[in-house]
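Objective 1b: paired records.
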Amino acid sequence: MDQIIVQILNGLDKGSAYALIALGLTLIFGTLGVVNFAHGALFMMGAFCAVVLSRILNLSHEVTVPGETDFLGNPATKDVPYVYDWFGEAAGASIIDWAVPLAILFSIPIMVALGFAMERGLIKHFYKRPHADQILVTFGLAIVLGEVIKYYFGANPIQTPAPEALSGRVDFGVWLGYGPNAIVYPMWRLVYFFFSAAIIAGVFAFLQFTTFGMVVRAGMADRETVGLLGIDIDKRFTFMFGLAAAVAGLAGVMYAPIVSPAYTMGMDWLVLSFVVVVVGGMGSLPGAVLAGFMLGIIESFASLPAVVDLLPGINQIIIYLVAIAILLTRPRGLMGRKGVMED
């Protein structure tokens, strides 16, 4: 039972990332009809927003240590972060420690601006082009963004630690009556799950309960009719592209302590995120979330040592096998609209 609980937690953790990325992808496809192969790169850019803010907060200057000398007899020096000068040593150290959560605020305007620039500068020219053209141009953009990150940050993964207060483990064994240390789980992964759940709930609430969201949903269902009512639906859809970019970026920011950011990060998640979208149903936001968590849990159980010993490599392909099975029986996906991907 303890292994089952741990695997469910692992599945919810990974499923949270799948669901967030797939949610942004579905927002773009549902509003603009664009197959955005650069969405994984937006996830990567969010992770590097955390890296950038961490480096900014660690910028330092050299000061002389009174009364101390080095081995040559010269006055000893040390590097002191500027935030220590501005906020005091204790507050400055706390700010540096909480760099990843603070990167949430840092990344939102950057990711929204990047989304607007991508949509207005490039993708808008491909709205009426075949999906193959959209895939090629957005895939090329993903490669460019990856190479830019590689140029400035190098090819090696960059460790971005979680705050010390959230880097421990939660002892579920005590809560569930199994005894101490029977079921322990990293605290930051739980934080990531609850953060993802809050973002997903926020996006659904925005679309469901605000006038702006209602117009967007109407435009997703019948764009021409909404345009005939005198509503500039294109501007609203551009905003949704920026929102989708922000969602992907936030997913990347909070995932940085779990998997150290690297320039290959976007490509690693690209194919999996599209599998999630297709399984959930192209254009279906609830389907994307459902498929994300479902596939995350399935992949987690497929990674059990007993399963891998019985079927070596199954944990690497189980998501694709499930996708094949679902699409063979239900081409539109779990919650896709009738006619989508059924031609």
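Objective 1b, second protein:
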Amino acid sequence: MLNPIEGEIFYIDKPLRWTSFEVVKKVRARLRKRLDIKSLRVGHAGTLDPLATGVLTVCTGRATKRIEELQASVKEYVAHLRLGQTTPSFDLETQVDATFPWQHITTDMIVKVLAEQFTGTIEQVPPAFSACKIDGKPAYKLARKGRDVEIRAKTLVIDEIELLECGLPQEPTMAIRVVCSKGTYIRALARDIGEALGSGAHLTALRRTRVGDITVDNCETIEGLLARLESEDMVSPDRAEQKRLEREREKNRAMARARKAEQAARKRACKPRQSQL
């Protein structure tokens, strides 16, 4: 039985072109309707771009308090890059703005660059088309207005980076698997890899394949989750509140017992021993 008010954590395979907020909005609306309540806290633990798919963690109710903890989990991605071209957003959201030679790049060169420059602790400047705040405003809103956006470099960790596919020398394409820390922008990684190879690059596809111990195999589709939320038994708001009050009472009783035990221990410590009389 689901208890969305007390808190549930759902793992969704986010579909292409959906924003993370759209997923949250759909889940919240379905739960509010089902529980017949006006408000319910629902949030996600780690944004995925609209053009990315894969593991998106959605928390409800009091489980939203765990969002920061869940965001800190190690993440794994599979990214497809096109070499020799750049875009302002570093992916397909925007049009190609520059082209570069790529014929000099070899598979061995890519493997060497990935191992030597993109493994371990690195510095990365997030994309202008990102949710990073500039004077309190998301950078992407400024970037889409054509404003110059300057974002400071951030320190992050790449635990693993592996070349999965390489279309060279016929096609300037490649695919990589990346295991990284919170705050890593794979679009920015594509930009930096292109530069390190003496060319340019941008993402053509991105899939988050793992967050912590959760893989895409553990996820459900948004359609499947919404259908489940419509049919599965749920704890009513009144029952959820009753359970919360019961836990609070038990917590208060436990604290009272602990205080009583502490007071008794202090009395025993202060009581003079027979040999001292």
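The mean pLDDT is 90. The chain has seven helices and 13 strands.
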